[in-house]
Amino acid sequence: xxxxxxTSEHASDxxxxxxxxxxxxxxxxxxxxxxxxxxxxxxxxxVVDLSGVTFIDACGxxxxxxxxRHARERGTPLLLAGAPPVVLKLLKLTNLDASFTVxxxxxPTGPAADRAGTTRPFQAGLPxxxx
Length: 131
Hints:
Elements: E1 5-10, E2 14-23, H1 28-41, E3 45-56, H2 58-74, E4 78-81, H3 85-93, E5 101-108, E6 119-124, H4 126-129
Parallel strand pairs: 2-3, 3-4, 4-5, 5-6
Antiparallel strand pairs: 1-2
């Protein structure tokens, strides 16, 4: 089992939550609580960096849905960044790919928002892009 690792990095108008490990029944509560705390504490766009996710099941997906709902209730833009194929496949299989804004992490300089379901470069400050 891969332990879940969660970190957040704040910039002037956005925050990046980095998720690494497995998203499943055991880790869902940790991710949900962590992300909700970040959303409540930090105004601006929230980027959930999923590039370190090695496994996701329905419970992990439900955590992402809960985070999206919480962000929407707070009026906070939410982006999923660096989603690996395992996450993208689950989003597509469940028809939730259009419910999230998914971005890549290829260029440095500020979050890019687009319509739901599209993939665009995530542009963050150099410390975030270098990870």
